[in-house]
Amino acid sequence: MHIELPEKRYYGIGEVAKAFGVNTSLIRFWEKEFDVLKPKKNAKGNRKFTPKDITNLQLIYHLVKERGFTLEGAKTHLKEEKLKTLSNFEVIQKLERVKAELVKIKNQL
After folding, report:
1. How is residue 39 annotated by DSSP?
2. Radius of gyration of the chain from Cα atoms?
3. d(Cα 14, Cα 65) in Å, to the nearest integer?
4. pLDDT of 33-65, one tens digit each?
5. How many CB atoms lie within 10 A of CB 27?
6. pTM for this structure?
7. Adjacent-strand bridge partners of 49
8. Quick check: helix, strand or coil at residue 11?
């Protein structure tokens, strides 16, 4: 899944949920379930997600929603093979961006 978010230092939970096409409650649930998600909170308690959090959310989304992992399976996979999974995921994302550009060029012909 390729997400469209402007480059910023922090993202609110609403814009994160919208980018992923999920409810904010799912983002909060994943935050509780996965140790790798540690959004900062402001004085009001509003979550502020960093680009690193977004990358981790993309990886969680990929494992759970696209590959069908259970939460426990995704947690184990992240702990045991995070670097390998992250590397593979980054390659997939780059290939999807290249494909999108090629389709765009094709449509312009």
Report:
1. -
2. 15
3. 19
4. 998 899 999 899 899 999 989 988 988 998 999
5. 22
6. 0.69
7. 11
8. strand
